Amino acid sequence: MIVTRAPLRVSFMGGGTDLPAFYRQEEGCVLSTSIQRYVYICLNKKFDDSIRVSYSQNEFCNSVDEIKHDLVRESLRFMGVEKGVEITSVSDIPSNGSGMGSSSAFTVALLTALAEYTKRGWTKEWLASTACDIEINCCGKPIGKQDQYASAIGGMNFIRFKPNESVESSPLWIRGAVRRELGRKLLLLHTGQSRKAEAILAAQSAHTGNDPETRRRLREMVILAQVMRDQIEAGNLSDFGRLLNAGWQLKQNLAGGIRDTFIDHCWTMGMQNGAEGCKLLGAGGGGFMLFYAEPDAQERIKQALPDLRPLPFDFDWDGASCKMR
């Protein structure tokens, strides 16, 4: 049996500039970190030639073409695995609408397992680029490229998306004390709401292509991502919360459905109870909210939002890996 895992990610700044509607005209960038919350894939050779896929549903198929899960079907096709496998996925968080790149982590973990199964060599860059190819080109999803690179490579990275379709991921040079301080002040709370990111991202892409104001906001987010990177590397976290808020104010106006009255309420309660900054992760509409606050303020925030479930986490520095064979 092959067991692999790929981490989820928390995006601090720049989400939306990784969409082709933006980066094909001017370079986009995202500042993000992977975290020690994972999607796991177990892959085993079956006794017979059928295919079994287990996720929130169970599929029993006689051929790859019968598989309903598009990421599994297209990954198997890409890797030339046509029969006789059993694939099971497990996630540390709800698999739909988390805002932490769970679909891309699934694809990265699955490709890692299939690469091991077919005895092909793989690199983290190959995993990221191939996951992008499968999700965007093979499955036709209107998404960007940040999640695949964050999950495959791991760590805290400044990721550039260039008009020629190349991607450049650079790790942040962050001192241990700064890393611990940042981790101490980050709080993740699940809103209990989920959404289909693809509809929001499709609308955002359309606005990016047609609306100069949307492009202006995205351009400002690129600048903020660069400023945030520079300050973290300089060991200065005094403006981190303010920058987080500035990015959220820009992001929530990129398309309809990113925010609603409940999300606004959560943001307001967080800020009133001591948060220095707050944003909704992912495309919008639900999933996890990220607060930046001192630990005593974090307790007040959790008490003010008792229906939101906390998710403790540490930073991940490994990226995709095969843990057992």
Describe what this molecule looks like in 3D.
It is a single chain. By secondary structure, this protein is of the alpha+beta class. The chain has helices at 20-23, 70-79, 102-117, 124-138, 146-153, 176-184, 197-210, 212-233, 240-251, 261-272, 295-304; strands at residues 2-13, 28-45, 51-54, 58-61, 85-91, 156-161, 167-171, 186-190, 277-280, 288-292, 309-310, 321-324. The strands form 2 sheets. Strands 1, 2, 3, 4, 5, 6, 7 and 12 form an 8-stranded mixed beta sheet that branches. Helix 2 crosses helix 4 (124-138) and helix 7 (197-210) packs across helix 8 (212-233). The chain starts with a strand and ends with a strand.
List the SSEs and their pairings.
Blueprint: E1 2-13, H1 20-23, E2 28-45, E3 51-54, E4 58-61, H2 70-79, E5 85-91, H3 102-117, H4 124-138, H5 146-153, E6 156-161, E7 167-171, H6 176-184, E8 186-190, H7 197-210, H8 212-233, H9 240-251, H10 261-272, E9 277-280, E10 288-292, H11 295-304, E11 309-310, E12 321-324
Parallel strand pairs: 3-5
Antiparallel strand pairs: 1-2, 1-12, 2-5, 2-6, 3-4, 6-7, 8-10, 8-11, 9-10
| Structural class estimated from helices and strands | alpha+beta
Q: Output the helix-strand order.
A: EHEEEHEHHHEEHEHHHHEEHEE
Mean pLDDT: 94
Number of strands: 12
Low-pLDDT windows of residues: none
Number of helices: 11
Strand portion: 15-25%
Shape by Cα distribution:
globular
| Helical content (DSSP H or I, runs of 4+) | 40-55%
